[in-house]
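Example record

The entry below shows one chain as it appears in the dataset: sequence first, then structure tokens.
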Amino acid sequence: MTVNTEFPDSVRVPQLWEAVAERMRSAILDGSLPAGAKLVESELADRFGTSRGPVREAIRELAREGLVVELPRRGTVVSTLTARDLAEVYAVREGLELTASKAVIDRVSDALLNSLAEPLREMESARRAKADYAVVAEHDFAFHRRFVVLAGN
């Protein structure tokens, strides 16, 4: 995939399964799909207004991320994460983001680097206003999507 680093908003349109995975991820993180909940493809397809195929792919992705667990002969359930699990995830994420930040700083102009400020301001504003988690997360994802484009990865 070719990435245009001259225009930071030129991101690819996610595939349907990716959009479903993002919505499921948000639902898991905000608790509307609680830990231990059984995930039924047909119910999720109805909930997200899609067919079972994208839901199946989204579940596979979330299983790779550790947010859901596929249990033989019992189906798929939302994972139960411990405090240690979360600490490990954030330690890895921190390392990845530091490395990516260095790459972006070395790679792009100040103007493009400054383009990251807008979604950060919107996210902080939403947090200060005690907006719903989904609103804050939307701004967070906008920042990270722009960041990924700038990183060229």
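Notes for this example: The first helix runs from residue 16 to 29. The mean pLDDT is 86.
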